[in-house]
Structure prediction request, 439 residues.
Amino acid sequence: MHDPAEMPARLAAFLALQEPDAGPVEVVSYEVMTGGYSRLLARAEVVWPQQDRRATYVLRGDPPADRAYIVTDRTREWEVLRAVVGRVAVSAPRYLDPTGEHLGTPALVIDHVPAASLLGYMAGRDDNRDLIGPLAEAAAAFHTLRLDQLPAALDRPASWQEYLNDRIDEWRRTARDHIESLPILRYVAAWLDAHRPPPVALGLIHGDFQSANLLRADDGRIVVLDWELAQIGDPREDLGYFRAVAQAAGPDVIGLDDEAFCARYRQLTGMTVEQLNPSVLAYFLVLGVVGTVRRMLEGGAAFARGDNHLLSSVFGQNSILFGQSMWLAFTEQLDASAAAPEV
Amino acid sequence: MFTRPTTDQILRAVADDLATVVLPDLTGEPVKVAVQMMIQLLAGCAVRAAHETAWMAEEGAAIEAAVGGLDDPATRTALAAYRAAGTDLHLEAAAR
Prediction:
């Protein structure tokens, strides 16, 4: 995938190996796609003339090492996709080149979904509150998978308490590992420690659940893309993360009516009001971004040391600045609401 | 040395030209996104260039005032090292 000119031939040879009984295969078009920040994306039209069959696929592969913003595993993403397909609307996984032997880099071949970008869809409308239900349904669909339905490769935390301890400690580890002192990271960790919500069952979390990774299908369902950061954790993290990203790049569908979102999500997952309400969502808005914060700070530090030269690494520092004001605003708001007398 | 135009003025001018002269002529989406990122980064650098050494000095003074009265050996050692470093405002020294 690093050399698009050679990809039609490579892809045709790869597909012929995957389906040796399907006859000759032709890749009639191969087009590099935009929008994938961490992985290379391309769309290919494929024809099997003997079978009068045609397909449109998306290839999702690793960039060259010095252009990699984050390192994730295509085989793991493949296994997660295989676990969720049929439960939640996704680009169905078709083929995997785990080593890059055939496609030049480890890559997935997945179905192209003819659906609109959710961000684009929302931008053309005055009121997006009708998306609250479908968004809750999309999240609940994979959040309610049982742990035994998930790939063995995903780490299983021993308990919710251990998981949350580790997530909070990630803020402290990030502070310790960063190239310079950022006391707000330790402040956030202390605040999260002191305001723990009630526990819930651990489940699959997407890890990058944001509007940019969602499509809206013609039937109204939300299609969830980019599963490379999926892991087992507290499902409410995805919801908080969604809100956090939407503060910078709205609209914030959940925030349009967070009570209604929580009610629908509770109905689908069986969570109680104590386990999920707007205040708990705000807690996870802060907690849920730690992975992104860590990756952005690591990227910025690598740039400062001269280990990478990615514009996106520097650009991420702008998001950290925005995040700092957001964390302070939400923690102060929650403290104020907790201190206010009930009317 | 030159003080006019200031560094922040120059950075803003480059960002403005990228936005009004270069960007409209671009057609490839990845290139457009990259240039938009550059414009935002330059705008941020313009703000930093105008203030960041002063901000660092102010923050250093505030921290010194806050911890100066603490009776803690590690803090005293760190504070002594900080004071021994002097008031060099060159970025490499000020950022330490």
